[in-house]
């Protein structure tokens, strides 16, 4: 209207509340759709994108032949997982010299036949194993995201008879094929003329671990090293001299399911020269590039998969081959088996010595 003193409303005025709400819902919807797509990919694709990671660790005495160790962990077997069974059976084609299984083999009460079918070709090889919590107890339904913020380790679980897994039958099957059970005890494997002196613990995640140290027999076999504390420089020098005198070269190997810091440090104190563990699933749901957000124990997430070092000792942690059946998803963290080649140290490099005596 002519003469109207009011200014005209600007054409680009403030958005209405309805427009703001609509835009916000669109953003939330897009985020939800992206999350749903990522989870669908993690369940349908990455969960079954099995692969082999390869590592080389120079931990054997100079002049030793290479020893190829296949590290398996966290199979979390479920009846019907044919692709996983076929992948694990096919690992025999890698021709490893020995197998180390670091536990959590089950995710279902009826999965023992599937597990034994998967492992059958590998049970013909020298091997050793330790249990994890999901060798003893079946998993329970829970919010999968709970894994990202709640730390539940170090507590003993009350045994529910309805949830107890067939771990005794599994151990008996492994033992009958010659694998060494390392449930808070020591063992020994000799492959390609190299002796693996093994020390294993029951699951630290449940608080079942009781460290046995390393067997005195290992030192006796190394001659004069028997007279020296195993974790001291003198003990290591004696072992090296014994190796040169004709005793088989040897390496001390710690084996555990869950890589709690107390466990790794105790292995180091006992004189371990390499440690194998699992449990972390590599973080399972990771950021791009495989950057873990959690380790499901007190280990820093940056160490949830691969080789790191604790007290100078190389620690090989597997991201595992499975998940709980109630959280069947992986993201930026595909399931893996690990082929670890233990090779000789250079002749001018001695084993790392630590001042802690063996307990």
Automatic annotation (TrEMBL):
Cellular component, GO annotation: membrane
A single GO molecular function term of this UniProt record: UDP-2,3-diacylglucosamine hydrolase activity
Pfam families on file: Metallophos
Keyword Lyase included in the entry's annotation: no
Biased composition range(s): Low complexity: 215-226
Alphabetic keyword roster: Membrane, Transmembrane, Transmembrane helix
Tagged with keyword Membrane: yes
InterPro entries in UniProt: Calcineurin-like_PHP, Metallo-depent_PP-like, Metallophosphoesterase_sf
Superkingdom of source: Bacteria
Gene3D superfamilies attached to this UniProt entry: 3.60.21.10
One of the protein's GO biological processes: lipid A biosynthetic process
PANTHER family (alphabetical): CONSERVED PROTEIN (PTHR31302:SF20), TRANSMEMBRANE PROTEIN WITH METALLOPHOSPHOESTERASE DOMAIN-RELATED (PTHR31302)
Listed name of the protein: Metallophosphoesterase
Annotated organism of origin: Rothia santali
């Amino acid at each position: 209207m002519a003469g109207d003193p009011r200014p005209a409303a600007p054409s680009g005025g403030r958005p209405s509340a309805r427009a703001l709400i609509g835009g916000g819902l669109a953003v939330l919807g897009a985020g939800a759709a992206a999350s749903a797509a990522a989870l669908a990919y993690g369940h349908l694709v990455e969960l079954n994108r099995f692969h082999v990671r390869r590592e080389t660790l120079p931990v054997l005495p100079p002049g030793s032949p290479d020893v190829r160790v296949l590290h398996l962990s966290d199979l979390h077997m479920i009846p019907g997982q044919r692709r996983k069974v076929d992948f694990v059976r096919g690992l025999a084609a890698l021709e490893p010299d020995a197998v180390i299984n670091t536990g959590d083999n089950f995710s279902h009460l009826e999965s023992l036949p599937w597990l034994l079918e998967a492992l059958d070709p590998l049970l013909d090889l020298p091997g050793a194993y330790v249990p994890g919590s999901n060798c003893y107890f079946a998993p329970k339904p829970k919010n999968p995201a709970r894994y990202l913020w709640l730390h539940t380790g170090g507590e003993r679980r009350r045994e529910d008879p309805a949830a107890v897994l067939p771990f005794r039958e599994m151990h008996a099957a492994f033992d009958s094929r010659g694998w060494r059970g390392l449930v808070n005890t020591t063992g020994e494997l000799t492959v390609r003329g190299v002796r693996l002196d093994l020390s294993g613990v029951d699951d630290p995640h449940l608080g079942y671990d009781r460290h046995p140290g390393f067997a005195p027999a290992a030192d006796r076999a190394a001659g004069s090293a028997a007279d020296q504390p195993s974790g001291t420089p003198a003990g290591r020098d004696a072992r090296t001299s014994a190796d040169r005198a004709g005793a088989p070269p040897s390496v001390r190997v710690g084996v555990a399911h869950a890589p709690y810091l107390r466990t790794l440090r105790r292995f180091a104190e006992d004189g371990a020269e390499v440690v194998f563990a699992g449990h972390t699933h590599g973080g399972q749901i990771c950021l791009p590039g495989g950057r873990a957000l959690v380790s499901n124990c007190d280990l820093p997430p940056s160490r949830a998969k691969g080789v790191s070092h604790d007290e100078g000792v190389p620690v090989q942690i597997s991201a595992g081959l499975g998940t709980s059946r109630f959280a069947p998803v992986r993201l930026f963290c595909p399931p893996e088996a690990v082929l670890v080649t233990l090779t000789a140290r250079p002749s001018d490099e001695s084993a790392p010595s630590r001042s802690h005596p063996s307990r």
